[in-house]
């Protein structure tokens, strides 16, 4: 039961979604998303030209068709699953649990205002961006947007952030447990870890040393304070921990990056290329997990589960299965509860 006199609350923040798969709703959502300087990190006028002149006139129709192909009766899968996660966590704790989206409806501002209205004794807010791996286009933009909202509302709140949990034991255990029912290395299948890609320049921008990332081929393995904010280091560490827990050999799995946008170099190898290469190398049975996402969404269901499957099968593969995200897995719900209780992971800004 929620303690309505609670002085502390948890705010879960996910990416967001268009209100519907109508082209107008998708265009409005993409406009907000792509105009974020942490997503397309170009000067304002250049970003404005790129988004308004080269993307929005064409992409919303294509994206709307993709959203329509995955839309549930209840709405956007990401929104539905995020609400279910909020409810599942709330059922396990006595403090209030809020839910906000970085873009679109259910905004961070609305979520914070709702918490303040319903819990008048609130003095402390812990913000959990639902991204295991730190990146400027996900974690950082949530943190900065939340700080801006708190400032604009002039709220007297102590705010802390859980900026990443890529190697947090309960999260790794939950991710491992979510994969096990779908994959066994003795059944002849191959496991692909497909992470959301980011531009290489984003990784360089978040490197506090401004020299470590991409400084050499083994930069992710060489100890550095850059690793705190290094997305490729985070995803490689998650993969190493999970494959170790699953007792996989190096030949049992691969790693790739999906969802690139534009012509600049992004993290490699690219998932769409890897899917074809695996089939051409003789891999017949493929399972794909997308650990950068904790809730199934357009990028998992449509990009990988539909288009990726088609690419693999057309290249000679025989079977393909998308492993669901953590969604509301009971171990994931418990991991969030433990993250809230692990104060050493809370970053106060």
Q: Which helices and strands, and how do they pair?
A:
Blueprint (H helix, E strand, L loop, with lengths): L7 E10 L5 H12 L9 H12 L3 H12 L6 H14 L6 E8 L3 H11 L5 E6 L6 H18 L4 E5 L6 H11 L10 E7 L3 H6 L25 H15 L7 E6 L12 H10 L4 E5 L8 H17 L4 E4 L7 H12 L4 E3 L1
Parallel strand pairs: 1-2, 1-3, 3-4, 5-6, 5-7, 7-8
Antiparallel strand pairs: 4-9
Helix pairs in contact: 1-3, 7-9, 7-12, 10-11
Summarize the structure.
The chain is an alpha/beta fold and 349 residues long. The protein has helices spanning 23-34, 44-55, 59-70, 77-90, 108-118, 136-153, 169-179, 200-205, 231-245, 271-280, 298-314, 330-341; strands at residues 8-17, 97-104, 124-129, 158-162, 190-196, 253-258, 285-289, 319-322, 346-348.
How does this model look, in words?
- The chain is of the alpha/beta class and 349 residues long.
- It folds into two domains: 8-166 and 329-348, Rossmann fold; 169-322, Rossmann fold (3-Layer(aba) Sandwich).
- 43% of the residues lie in helices and 15% in strands.
- It has helices spanning 23-34, 44-55, 59-70, 77-90, 108-118, 136-153, 169-179, 200-205, 231-245, 271-280, 298-314, 330-341, and strands spanning 8-17, 97-104, 124-129, 158-162, 190-196, 253-258, 285-289, 319-322, 346-348.
- A five-stranded mixed beta sheet has the order 2-1-3-4-9. A four-stranded parallel beta sheet has the order 6-5-7-8, with helices on both faces.
- The relative contact order is 0.15.
- The mean pLDDT is 95.
């Amino acid at each position: 039961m929620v303690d309505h006199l609670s002085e502390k609350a948890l705010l879960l923040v996910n990416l967001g979604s268009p209100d519907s798969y109508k082209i107008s709703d998708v265009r409005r959502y993409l406009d907000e998303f792509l105009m974020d300087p942490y997503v397309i990190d170009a000067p304002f006028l250049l970003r404005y030209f790129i988004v308004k002149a080269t993307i929005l006139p064409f992409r919303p129709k294509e994206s709307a068709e993709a959203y329509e192909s995955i839309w549930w009766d209840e709405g956007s899968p990401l929104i539905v699953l995020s609400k279910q996660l909020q409810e599942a966590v709330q059922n396990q704790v006595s403090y209030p649990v809020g839910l906000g989206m970085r873009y679109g409806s259910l905004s961070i501002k609305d979520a914070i205002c709702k918490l303040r209205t319903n819990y008048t004794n609130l003095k402390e807010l812990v913000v959990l961006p639902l991204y295991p791996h730190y990146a400027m286009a996900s974690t950082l933009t949530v943190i900065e947007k939340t700080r801006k909202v708190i400032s604009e509302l002039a709220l007297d709140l102590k705010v802390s952030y859980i900026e990443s949990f890529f190697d947090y034991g309960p999260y790794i255990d939950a991710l491992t447990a979510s994969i096990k029912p779908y994959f066994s290395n003795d059944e002849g299948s191959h496991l692909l870890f497909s992470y959301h890609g980011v531009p290489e320049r984003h990784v360089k921008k978040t490197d506090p040393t401004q020299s470590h990332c991409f400084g050499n081929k083994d930069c992710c393995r060489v100890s550095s304070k850059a690793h705190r904010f290094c997305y490729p280091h985070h995803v490689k560490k998650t993969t190493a921990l999970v494959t170790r827990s699953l007792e996989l050999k190096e030949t049992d799995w691969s790693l790739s990056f999906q969802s690139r946008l534009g012509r600049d170099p992004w993290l490699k190898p690219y998932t769409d290329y890897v899917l074809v290469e695996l089939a051409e190398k003789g891999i017949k049975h493929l399972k794909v997990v997308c650990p950068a996402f904790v809730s199934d969404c357009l990028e998992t269901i449509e990009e990988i589960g539909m288009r990726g499957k088609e690419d693999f099968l057309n290249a000679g593969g025989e079977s393909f299965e998308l492993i669901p995200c953590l969604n509301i897995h009971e171990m994931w719900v418990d991991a969030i509860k433990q993250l809230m209780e692990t104060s050493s992971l809370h970053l106060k800004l």
